[in-house]
Amino acid sequence: MDYVLRTNHLTKRYGGKTVVNNLHMNIRQGDIYGFLGQNGAGKTTTLRMIMGLIQPTAGEIELFGESLFGRRARAMERIGAIIEYPGFYLNLSAADNLEIHRRLMGMGNKEYIEEVLSIVGLLDARNQKVKHYSLGMKQRLGIARALLHHPELLVLDEPTNGLDPAGIKEIRQLFLDLARQRGITFIISSHLLSEVEQLATRVGIIHHGTLMEEINYDDLQRKTRHYLEIKVDDDKKAAYLLEQKLGLSDYRIAGPGILHLYGSLDQSASVNLALTSHGVGVKEIRLSGDSLDYFLKVTGGVPLG
Amino acid sequence: MVNVIYTELLKLKSTKIPWLVLLGAIPANLVALFAFLPKIAPDGTPAGIDIQDMFYRQGMVLVMIAPSIFALFTAYIISREYQERTINQLFSYPVSRARILSAKLAVVFILIVMTTVLSCIAVLAASLVKLLQGSINFDIIWLGLKMNVWVCLLSFGTVPVAAAVTLIAKNVIPAAVLGVFATIVTVIGEIGHGQGGILFPWLTPYWPVRHLAQDIADLADPNPYAVPALIILSATFVLSMAFSLIYYVRSDVHSGS
Q1: Which residue among B3, B14, B252 sits closest to A54, beta carbon to beta carbon?
Q2: At residue B219, does pLDDT exceed 70?
Q3: How many CB atoms lie within 10 A of CB A5?
Q4: Is A87 within 8 Å of B4 when comparing Cβ atoms?
Q5: What is d(CA B61, CA B32) in angstroms, rounded to the nearest whole number?
Q6: Domain boundaries, chain A
Q7: What would the pLDDT profile of A279-301 be if each residue is shown by its tens digit?
Q8: Quick one: fold of A226-288?
Q9: Segment holding A42, helix H or strand E
């Protein structure tokens, strides 16, 4: 399996405080990796270590199959990034800012500047000084800059900050298109569950500097599906009745006397009737399971976004 | 490296830096023009315009102003990356931090040269006129140009100190305060006219200026403090440069500052 990025025992301590603790991230080629955690969980510190902005206290970062140590420059040519806030030279135009980026990336072709400005819808504002840009425009320009050198990996720290809902939707679609059309791998950090859910093919949940879970989108979907939780005195008989009397097979026995019924969320009354009329004692039926519940469980009860 | 220097120069487009260059150059031109004021020679006859004297006045004023202006160049070029939060992006390029800092200091040197060249405009114009009139030969102009080359080189010796202070503070103010303090000491040192003043690193550029003045006064003895002053300035340069490089290369970047 081709890994674009792996971290091994990645740790950052400040004084006695561990900000990132023994992190093992695994990001495969083509992943849209949602890096999810509440504010202060260690997301930005991790991304800064990946970009070489801060030195890890311990551990290793492997980019494109090679250790970052001693090969940083070569790796950076293949990465585009927005870390925390897209900083620009405010006295310069968007085109001049991208020209600086083009030269420092060692790119020959100037035409890409117009191409990326066009992608993010800033072509008409290319000669306007960045100090006159709104936060949303700066965020788009940051994305344009990150794309300019045709990166294989995009590291985006809270990329939709400052965008209005329409802008968020547009940028989200842009990321999906880039992933599909150019095969770009993304790491997108966010403290917003909804953000990550709508984009990610793989999710890493960080809490207090520790990576609590790495999970594929399909598994996440399964774990965060809504279901009817049915507490009964005889789970085997209840399962038999669900299948035979009501024709419902999308369920699982979650524990002794507990069934989770998926996809038939509006049938609680008929389920109750079918079970009780056949002598199964129903203690409770309730709608349960959503992504927030799941993340609360993973992060030990601390709500996210 | 040329690309990195070019980007550093591009960053100065539409900033106040060109005005700061003029601010450094104009006083030297004005004081040099004082040579045009009517003067009487020791024998009571009207004295003409002395190009060497003009160069001396220009150099003297430039050396007074240089610590403040050059510290501001350095501080602005380094600190704006932190202030405008471009440092995250800057350090994400496939360019070493040492090379980035070197390019920044190279741009400071270019600005020092520009300020020095512009500060010579009045005296060079007067020289050209006198040269065309045949009343001076090129040796005098060469003497003044040599003095300015030395002023440029020696002034750059203290630039890494301003860089180090800026890197620690990540804003312009401490380097500006340092520059003003150095200017005050320089002014006092020049007024005192003592030979030992050049031991203060920011006053070392006054050595070639004073040398020119000695030449005017026919005092040919070399300044006995020249060598120690050069050693002190070299040590200042090497130590502050080493500190700046190590600090720049090793420091973590947090929240764009």
Answers
A1: B252
A2: no
A3: 24
A4: no
A5: 9
A6: 3-221, 226-288
A7: 888 888 887 766 666 666 666 65
A8: Alpha-Beta Plaits (3.30.70)
A9: none
